[in-house]
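# nightly structure sweep
# worker-07 picked up a monomer target from the shared queue
# config: single-sequence mode, recycle default, output format = structure tokens
# input follows
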Amino acid sequence: MTLNIGSSSKKIYPGTISLDIGLYPGVDVVADGKKIPFKDNTFDLAIAEMILEHVDTPEEVIKQAHRVLKTGGEIYVTIPFMFAFHGAPDDFNRYTLNGLKRRLKIAGFQVTNAGVISGPSSTLSQVLRYYLSMLFSFNSKFLFSFWLNVFGWLTFPFKYLDFLVNHHPKAHMLAGSVFAIGKKQNRESSN
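# output follows
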């Protein structure tokens, strides 16, 4: 069984239990990810995609995921690194790849895979988009929104260069977002 923490209206696949703080279409359980209302050792997989940046204490969400996962269960986490502020409802955190792996290890997970999702080219695209929109908006919200759309279309092709650089050993240094997969160990192997 799979738990999607902070799912909004996403249904990953049938059998997924979607948990979010709001009652959106597709949400099965309305609850805070820092207090997941399920018994220990319930799930085989926990998903936390692009939500930890919106939580003031993301370590608590990771600990709760660890608690509700069965031994051998896995967590899949994604989080922005070099990414524009986006409040929904707020935006508190960014983790480096090493920072994300460290958070999972502290919670008791063995990190089995980690890497870059959106790489340096996506970061460049976004930075240019926001910078040029601010530069040419002259403090007008309307112009900022207008230019954000225009420069979004103009800089979007840069993202395709990630196919060339995402596997570079230093790509994580300028990544737009990163991921990690952790496996819950039994008590004997985690000590």
